[in-house]
Task: structure prediction
Amino acid sequence: MHHNTIFLFYFLLVCTFGFSQSKFQIKNSKSTKIEFELINNLIVFPLKVNGAELSFLLDSGVSKPILFNIVNMSDSLHINHVESIYIRGLGDQGSVEALKSKKNVIQVGEAVKDDQDIFVIFDEDINFTPRLGVPVHGIIGYDIFKDFIVEVNYASKYLMLFDPKTYQYKKCKKCKTLDLDFHQNKPYINAKIEIHDSQVPVKLLIDSGSSDALWLFEEDSLGIVPHGVKFFDDFLGKGLSGSIYGKRTRIGAFSLGDFHLNKVNAAFPEASAIGVARSYKERNGSVAGEILKRFNLIVDYGNQKLTLKKNKYFKKPFNYNMSGITLEQEGFRIVKEQYDAVAKDDYGNRTNSNSMVTVIASYRFMLKPAFKVVELREGSPAEQAGLIKNDIVLKINGNETKNLTLQEVNKLLQGDDGDFVKMTIDRNGFIILVSFRLKSLF
Result:
């Protein structure tokens, strides 16, 4: 099956700074509820910055909010008290210039914080909206988790933020509570992986900002290596400092406390792209959205613990991108559509009679989303069939893409080993047909 992945936003600030001491406050209540969209295993939810309504990702892998994709929002979004800094993230293209902004007002649901530091990136290339197909203006993590006990209900798609002073844990026989460790305000958890028929203990970053299942850092001494198992080279996602490539494989099992998952997807990112992430020597990788979404969570930073309960996604198989295609919503294309076709008599009046009539069709030109091939795995069925980067996808198995979302288009590429895929594409104005069969690599 197809699974489109994107990795966001572990970063390092290349400067020294102090953090403001204010906290979120929930006015006249002990809790607040925020509904979210779950897109590619990522939590996208509404958040206000200085009164401007934006969409953010909830990313436990970041220590301070980052704001981007705001080029056309200068009139409604006011950023004050700024100084220039540099941010380094995953990828191998170096640091990114940003502004550190102080004294911002952040609102999440009914929770408000009036003295928030934010890091603002104006580089238009740092824009993850095309990869998700919905507007995303920033990421936030630690500042929410540190001030609340956070219930993350992946199954029903909502967050609950609770005042830690009044929160009471409910009795739950099916829940398991595990200890958290922290390094530079980021949460880590101990787990086990089964690789090369051996059980290996690992310390993993809990990373809700990655849509993958599991990232592992190669370590020969522990046997955490892709050698000896089936793997393929692939695009893993996009970080603040560029694209990330590596090897994809499937390990025998993954255990988190008493919870066990079999045949779990894992990726080994190239060392050149994860220098920032490997600065913490005890870290062996990340556990991310494709695994996290299989649980409903209670995240308690104050008491350094995580409570998990299996949900409806727990037994879902781990899928991966068999086609080898990564799509992006690349702006819009002009589409000619018929919107009226009526029968009229010789006097121009509408008629349903059997007399001599003229059928008149009316057309309009509409802007529709354009879905472009931005990554193509070498040797994949789609590449072998003749698809190339920058092709615009018009149809998949007879389904026109013009009225679909990116998630719906990606779903059309899902299937099982051997399933047939027929695509109509636009290549520089030429209409081309491409067809291939999905092929399992495991």
